[in-house]
Every structure is written in structure tokens, then in C-alpha cells.
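Researcher: Let's do a round of design. I'm pasting the C-alpha cells now; please hold your answer until I've finished.
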């Protein structure tokens, strides 16, 4: 017996070491050929703050973001997916331990005509436990944990994206509201010019074609006004959808506010460190790690032996005719399952799991590269929007000075009302262009905020 025990000792030690080993998830690494620095010049300014919307100076925006976070159906769906992932992680953890259940049964019947009716009653406690000798179940547990973390990060990303979308919708509404006011003023001037030209045509001092052209321009001004009415209404509906509120009750809460002039943002992170600033990239990393753990666990489960135990203990009572028997019931059944041959089913399952891991790894790299491109595009758009706004404001100042001078000349009787209205319309057009430039700059700022992760940073302690 001693030589036999000596031969079995290495096998027992190997099984013990295997039981203490858990497959590990791969660590993140920057994709190859990822740029070492940003190609587009930096915007300068301060780092993106977590509550970046405070810097826009719009008093309605913080409350709208809070309302969206509290009421948005999109976030409610993300929270439900997180709860599901957490429940799956808990179920995977529970599968590592023994399972017990109690059972009480009673029966009475006659199994064969010559025999007397019989009764039986028993209660039992059953237990089962599959030992995770090689770490397959622990890999499944850790994969479920990684997926739960991915669901939490996806919720974070949804919150950040929703805040940006609310900001975009509010600023677009303010832009449309301001443009509508300009369009109505321009419509009034166009109508005044059309009436003056019609009167001049009747007096014979203006050609009919010139008067018809003025009528056409007035009609175009009315069409532009209606277009901005529709734009403003559409953005109000979009904003109401984002915050899950009624548009009729939301509109009075917005008030009147000029479009902001956001300060430039410093892009203090490098392409390789975007993973720590964007929750969607961090979620993609967890998905890859989960797929890797599942691939390792599947390979183990499909090829390694499995050892399980089941046990039963209880009491029973049986009555047959005039006799009664009672006593203890027990059973102990260890089971060792060894994979032998299945015409390639296990190999296919392992290959499938590895393919899913490769897909998740490629997905992470694609999202990483896409995030780098988004930052570059946002920086380019920011620089272009800044330049356009400076030009538009300079042009606006020029036309405002012309309109002021024309007003002074008209009051002195040195300029006709027609010429004054023309200069005022040109000034309104310049103001409209400046509003477009202001909205473009705000949109570029929000695009850069989104590309940089919305102020999110990964908490390494959770």
C-alpha cells in the first residue's frame, strides 16, 4: 500500500495546485501603430471638468441634465441591464459552492392487485457540489464579474452621452429661438420694403419688375420665419424627449439666454490613455476580458475531468398491510467525469469561445482607434469654429456700424427709408451669420467634450 500511496501523491498535489489556479484576464495594451501624440494642434485652456456644463453659463442646463438622468428611458434600460449583469455574476458565484435542498414526500397506493395498499412518507436533505478543480467555474464567475463591470461602465457612458445630447438640444433650441426673432424682424423690414416698392410702382417711379422682386423677397422672408418656427419646435420636442418631459411644460422653463462662448479645452491625455477617460472604451475592455475568461473556462471545462459529490440524508416510514417500517435514509455518490470522444463537439465549443474573444479584442481596438479619430475631428472642428466666429463677429460689427450711421443719416433727412431698411436687413443677415457661428462653436465644444469622455475618469479602486 505504501508504494501505491507514494505514486498517488504527485497526482493529489497536482490536483490541489490546479484547484488553487484561476484563469486571469488579459491586461489592456495600446493597439499597435496607435499615434503617440495628437496630430491636430491643442486647443489650449483648462482641463475638462466632470461638471463641464457649469462652464457654459446656461442656468437651465444643469436642471435639464439632472432631469434627464432621473427620468430618461434610455438610462432606465441601462440600469436594467446592469441589474441583470449583477444578478448573473451572483448566480455564477453561487455555482461555486455546494447546493442543498430539502424534500418531504408522502404516498399511498396499490402497486399490484394481490398486494394490500401501502403508505410511505419521508423527508430528506440533499446536497450536491461540483469541485472546480481546474478553474473553469471560477473563470465563468470572473467573466460574469467583468460583464457586470462593463454594464456599469456602459451606464456611465450613457449618462455622459445624455448630458452632451441635452446640451446640444438646448443650445440648438436657443439658436433657433434667436434666429426666429431675427427672421421676424427681417420679415417686417422686407414687408416694409415691398409696400414701399409697390407704392412707387403705382406712382410710376419704379418698374413693375423691381416691385415684383421686392414681393418675392418678402415672401422668402416669410418662408424663412416659418422655417425657424419649425426648427425651434423640433428642437423643443427633441429636448423634451431627452429629459422625458412634456414640451408644453418644458418651454416656459427655458427662459431666454444668449448662446455661450465656451472656453478652449486642453487635451491633456494622449491617445494611449483615452482608455482611462472614456467609459465606452473601458466597457469594451471589460467585454474583451470577459470573453477571454470565458474562452479559458470553456477550454478547461471541455477537456478537464470533473469531480462532483452528491449526498442525501433523511428519515422514512413505510406501511404495508399490518407492518410498519421506519428508519434513516442516506446516500453518498461521488462522480468523476472524464471527457473521451465526441466527434469534435468540445473542440468546436473551444474554437467558438476563442473566436468570440478575438472578436471582442478587435472590437476594443476598433473603438480605441475610433475614439482617437473623434478627438482629432473635434479639435479640427473647434479650431475652424473659433476662426469662423471671430470672422462673423467682425463682420457683424462692421454692418452694425453701417446701420447705426444710416439711422443717423435717415433721422437727419439725408438717407431714404428704403436705403435704411436695406442696411438694417444687411445687419440682420450679419447677426444671423454670427448666431450660426456661435452655435457652431458651441457644437464643436460639445463634440470635444464627448470625444474626451464627458469628464469621466475610471476609479481604480472599484
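Researcher: That's everything. Go ahead.
Model: Designed sequence:
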Amino acid at each position: 500500500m505504501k508504494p501505491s500511496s507514494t505514486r498517488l501523491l504527485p497526482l493529489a498535489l497536482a490536483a490541489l495546485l490546479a484547484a488553487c489556479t484561476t484563469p486571469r484576464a488579459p491586461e489592456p495594451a495600446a493597439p499597435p501603430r496607435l499615434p503617440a501624440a495628437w496630430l491636430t494642434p491643442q486647443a489650449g485652456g483648462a482641463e475638462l471638468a466632470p461638471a463641464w456644463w457649469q462652464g457654459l453659463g446656461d442656468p437651465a442646463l444643469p436642471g435639464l441634465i439632472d432631469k434627464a438622468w432621473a427620468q430618461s428611458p434610455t438610462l432606465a434600460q441601462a440600469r436594467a441591464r446592469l441589474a441583470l449583469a449583477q444578478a448573473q455574476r451572483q448566480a455564477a458565484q453561487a455555482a461555486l459552492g455546494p447546493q442543498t435542498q430539502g424534500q418531504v414526500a408522502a404516498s399511498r397506493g396499490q402497486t399490484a392487485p394481490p398486494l394490500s395498499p401501502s403508505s410511505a412518507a419521508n423527508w430528506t436533505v440533499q446536497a450536491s457540489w461540483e469541485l472546480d478543480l481546474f478553474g473553469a467555474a471560477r473563470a465563468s464567475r470572473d467573466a460574469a464579474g467583468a460583464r457586470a463591470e462593463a454594464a456599469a461602465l456602459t451606464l456611465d457612458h450613457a449618462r455622459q452621452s445624455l448630458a452632451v445630447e441635452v446640451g446640444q438640444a438646448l443650445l440648438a433650441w436657443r439658436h433657433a429661438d434667436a434666429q426666429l426673432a431675427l427672421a421676424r424682424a427681417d420679415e417686417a423690414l422686407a414687408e416694409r420694403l415691398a409696400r414701399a416698392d409697390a407704392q412707387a410702382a403705382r406712382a410710376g417711379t419704379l418698374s413693375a419688375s423691381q416691385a415684383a422682386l421686392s414681393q418675392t423677397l418678402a415672401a422668402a422672408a416669410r418662408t424663412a420665419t416659418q422655417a425657424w418656427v419649425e426648427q425651434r419646435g423640433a428642437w423643443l420636442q427633441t429636448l423634451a424627449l431627452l429629459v422625458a418631459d412634456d414640451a408644453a411644460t418644458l418651454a416656459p422653463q427655458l427662459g431666454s439666454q444668449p448662446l455661450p462662448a465656451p472656453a478652449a479645452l486642453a487635451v491633456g491625455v494622449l491617445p494611449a490613455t483615452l482608455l482611462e477617460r472614456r467609459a465606452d472604451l473601458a466597457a469594451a475592455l471589460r467585454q474583451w476580458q470577459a470573453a477571454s475568461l470565458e474562452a479559458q473556462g470553456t477550454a478547461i471545462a471541455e477537456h478537464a475531468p470533473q469531480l462532483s459529490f452528491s449526498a442525501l440524508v433523511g428519515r422514512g416510514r413505510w406501511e404495508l398491510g399490518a407492518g410498519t417500517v421506519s428508519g434513516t435514509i442516506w446516500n453518498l455518490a461521488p462522480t468523476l467525469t472524464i471527457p473521451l470522444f465526441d466527434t469534435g463537439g468540445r473542440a468546436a465549443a473551444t474554437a467558438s469561445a476563442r473566436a468570440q474573444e478575438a472578436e471582442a479584442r478587435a472590437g476594443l481596438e476598433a473603438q480605441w482607434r475610433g475614439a482617437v479619430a473623434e478627438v482629432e475631428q473635434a479639435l479640427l472642428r473647434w479650431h475652424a469654429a473659433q476662426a469662423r466666429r471671430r470672422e462673423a463677429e467682425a463682420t457683424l460689427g462692421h454692418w452694425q456700424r453701417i446701420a447705426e450711421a444710416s439711422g443717423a443719416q435717415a433721422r437727419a433727412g439725408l438717407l431714404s427709408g428704403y436705403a435704411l431698411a436695406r442696411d438694417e436687413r444687411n445687419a440682420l443677415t450679419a447677426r444671423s451669420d454670427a448666431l450660426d457661428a456661435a452655435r457652431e462653436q458651441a457644437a464643436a465644444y460639445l463634440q470635444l467634450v464627448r470625444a474626451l469622455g464627458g469628464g469621466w475618469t475610471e476609479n481604480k479602486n472599484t
